[in-house]
Amino acid sequence: MKRLITGAMAFTAWLLLLFMGPFPLFWLVITALAGVGIAEYLTIVLPALSRRARVPLLLFGLLPLVGAYSGEAIGVLCGLSLALVALLLHTLSRYASLAQPYEVISRGGFGYLYLGLCSAHLVLLMALPQGRAWLLLLTAVTAASDTAAFYTGSKFGKHKLCPAISPGKTWEGFAGGLAGSLGAALLVRHFFLPGQGLLWICLIVLLLGCLGAAGDLSESVIKRAFGVKDSGSLLPGHGGLLDRIDSLLLTAPVLYYLLYFGTGLCLK
User: Taking Cα atoms as reference points, which of 135, 148, 131 lies closest to residue 183?
Assistant: First the structure.
């Protein structure tokens, strides 16, 4: 019950932000959420660093989000480049006090790619024509996939999807998740994106469904490597924020570039 209540509250807040919040507010909320995700990630992968020592690493990781405010991919790329340069310079300046400087560089740098870069694409999606509708499609597909996969896998799951990483996931659950994603996507298309072709939507759902599962497994790899069950305890019944946005981290960039190349949208 706690899981359902938390999920319903989060989804309601997301819908309000999506359809009633102006772009600056949306950017601010996504940046703040990305900061929480980066903080959780750094706590997992750099446990030896004190909370104070992780603060500058967190701030550097937000630079791609700062660049995303322009609504252009080049801004995100500039932010990411600055983040990596800042990480290197910061590590060099504190080299003597760090037990394993290369771990700070490699694990921090991956975090900037995994969380900073990928989450910045949510802001880029918002800046596109019909961006709010596409973000609704993205979140509907992700939420429906997670829910359908959980219940389908619990009832019919027999064949393990990737037992070495996540023993609870099954191929039956994966198939149920794709079916749930398709149903959610068709509803969003009918009410918010009626001009989009059925085949185009089905292609998007297939790619996003597969990548969403991969995103979930990717976070499981990180947690398993460090012996962590949940990324945090922010969301009752769900764990940390990173546990809930892991699918979006891979699907948001892919949807953005699908729209860019598939519909001929031009970025300035």
Answer: 148
Question: Domain tally for the chain?
Answer: 1
160: which strand partners?
A: 170
Strand partners, 166: 162
CA atoms of 139 and 141, how far apart (whole Å): 5
Q: How many CB atoms lie within 10 A of CB 49?
A: 20
Query: 126 lies in which domain range?
Result: 2-262
In a domain, 227, yes or no: yes
Task: With respect to residue 268, please indicate whether it lies within any of the assigned structural domains.
Answer: no
Which amino acid, residue 252? A
**Tens of pLDDT, residues 3-58:** 667 667 777 888 899 989 999 999 999 999 999 999 999 999 999 999 999 999 99
